[in-house]
Specification:
Layout: H1 2-26, H2 34-60, H3 72-103, H4 111-139, H5 143-163, H6 173-182, E1 195-198, E2 201-204, H7 206-230, H8 236-248, H9 250-257, H10 267-284, H11 292-318
Antiparallel strand pairs: 1-2
Helix pairs in contact: 2-3, 2-8, 2-9, 3-7, 3-8, 3-10, 3-11, 4-7, 4-8, 5-10, 7-10, 10-11
């Protein structure tokens, strides 16, 4: 029990150090090049994959609570599967983040700060939701059916929206009205500041308004992603590891894909396939155990297919 506590404390300290490194080393300057964001994206993916060795050693030496009796090899495989599920579902989150920044007219160079604090908030919120989700899976035998049905519904709703060609615009009018009831938001930016002084009064800037909406939408997306990873494993440490390291790389991935998000429109269909598969996996989890290699294969093929079809469509439109 004591060693398990030390592992959690060590993990939290490591995450804090990574956040400090991200803020004060990787993003000392407001503007970064596409080459730098590509390197950062690769860096975060490598950091996440390197955790496989840590997980293997922890489970080999029985240093953590192992409620589901996982072998070190299976623990690593479930972590990798969960990580790529979270990463793939985050792609849809990136589309919404881009729309929020566009709605508030936030220049690219000021978006780093909002995303940093947004990710910090996401870690806290998702940590709490993971704790609740794990307890629900342990205490309520029929909860996988509820989560599985919800994910299948979400997948088909997404497909319906795509087929009906609903415009991909973020409707923030209601959110802005609610925020303005409790918060004075200036129509003007003040660099990368969250608050400013106008006519002697302290007011929030549009950057802060964007941050609030990013936090809110991340909670909504977590409602999908947390049940999705719980379909892979109910081991709290593995769920936390996979979710947090996917979230840590979200900011760099956003800036790497910032100018290409609209072009990769067919990734929405990839996410539909992934959500549908995970929903079915949850419903079947008490009756049939689907191997993790199959889950990894479906995620990889879905994302690869979405990218390839998007690139083909781009080539046809440029000819």
């Amino acid at each position: 029990m004591t060693s398990n506590l030390y592992v959690w404390i060590g993990l939290i300290i490591f995450i804090v150090l990574l956040l400090i490194f991200d803020l004060f080393v990787l993003h000392k300057r407001e503007e970064v090049s596409n080459k730098q964001t590509a390197k950062e994206t690769i860096f975060w993916i490598l950091v996440a994959i390197a955790q496989s060795l840590v997980i293997y050693l922890l489970y080999t030496n029985d240093l953590v609570r192992n409620p589901t009796g996982l072998t070190p090899h299976n623990a690593v495989l479930k972590y990798i599967t969960g990580y790529f599920i979270e990463l793939s579902l985050s792609v849809d989150n990136l589309f919404v983040i881009a729309m929020i920044f566009k709605s508030f007219h936030i220049p690219l160079k000021y978006q780093h700060k909002a995303l940093f604090w947004g990710i910090l908030g996401a870690i806290v919120f998702r940590g709490a939701m993971i704790g609740v989700g794990v307890v629900l899976f342990e205490k309520i035998s029929w909860i996988p059916y509820v989560f599985g049905g919800f994910l299948i519904y979400t997948a088909f709703k997404m497909l319906y929206d795509e087929l009906m060609e609903k415009p991909e615009e973020f409707d923030d009018s209601k959110s802005k009205k609610i925020m303005r009831k409790y918060l004075k938001i200036s129509p003007n930016l003040d660099g990368n500041k969250f608050f400013t002084i106008e006519n002697g009064a302290k007011m929030a800037t549009p950057l802060f308004g964007a941050l609030i909406l990013i936090e809110f939408t991340d909670i909504l997306f977590a409602v999908d992603s947390i049940p999705a990873i719980l379909a892979v494993t109910q081991d709290a440490l593995l769920v936390f590891y996979a979710t947090i390291f996917a979230t840590l790389g979200l900011r760099s991935m956003y800036f790497f894909l910032a100018n290409m998000l609209e072009k990769f429109h067919y990734l929405h269909y990839s996410i539909f396939v992934i959500l549908l598969y995970i929903g079915i996996k949850l419903i079947l989890m008490h009756h049939y155990e689907i191997p993790e290699w199959l889950s990894l294969g479906i995620i990889f093929l879905s994302l690869t297919g979405g990218v390839i079809v998007s690139l083909i469509k781009i080539d046809k439109t440029t000819v």
